[in-house]
Amino acid sequence: MKNIFKKLTGLDKAEARIAEEEENLLKKKDPKALATKKKEPYVAVIDTHVNKDNIRNGFFELDWNEYFILELRQNGYGEEGDPEEEIVDRWFKDIVYNMLSEDGLDTSRGAGYINVVPISQDKSEVS
C-alpha cells in the first residue's frame, strides 16, 4: 500500500532523485564513504612523501575500507586475524614487484625495506 501511495503522489521519484544527489555528493566529498555504503572495495593513495636528503626513500599514505581487506583476503593476501596493515603491505609489495618485473628491472635488488606505520584502523603510512 505504501508503494502505491508513493507512485501516485510522485514521492518515489523524489526519493530516487534525493538518493542520486546524495550519492553524487558523496562521490565528490568522500569516495571512501560511498564505496563503503555500497559495500565495495576502496583503496587510495592519500599522499606521497620523498626524503629530501635521499630521493630513494619516501613513503605513501594509503587509505582503505573493510571491503578492500575482504577482497585481499579472498585473493590470498591474508587470513582472518591478520592485521590489516600486513595484508595491505603484502598486496603493495606485489604491486611494486609486478611494476619492476614489467619494466624488466631486477626484482631481487636491495632497494631498502617497506615500513608500515598504522595511523588508524584503516589508514597506514608505507615507507
In short:
By secondary structure, the protein is of the alpha+beta class.
Could you please describe the fold and organization of this structure?
- With 127 residues, the chain is an alpha+beta fold.
- It has 2 domains: 30 residues; 86 residues, no CATH class.
- Helix content is 49%, strand content 19%.
- It has 5 helices and 4 strands; from the N terminus they run H-H-H-E-E-H-H-E-E.
- A 4-stranded antiparallel sheet has the order 1-2-4-3.
- A hairpin with a 7-residue loop joins strand 1 and strand 2.
Instruction: Give me the count of strands.
Output: 4
Tally of domains:
2
Radius of gyration from CA coordinates: 21 Å
Structural class: alpha+beta
Unreliable segments of 5+ consecutive residues:
none
How big a fraction of the residues is strand? 15-25%
**Helix content, binned percent:** 40-55%
Strand adjacency order, main sheet: 1-2-4-3
Secondary-structure element order, as H and E?
HHHEEHHEE
User: How many helices?
Assistant: 5
What would the average pLDDT be, to the nearest integer? 81
What global shape is seen?
elongated
Give a short account of the largest sheet. Answer: 4 strands, antiparallel
Cα distance spanning the termini: 58 Å
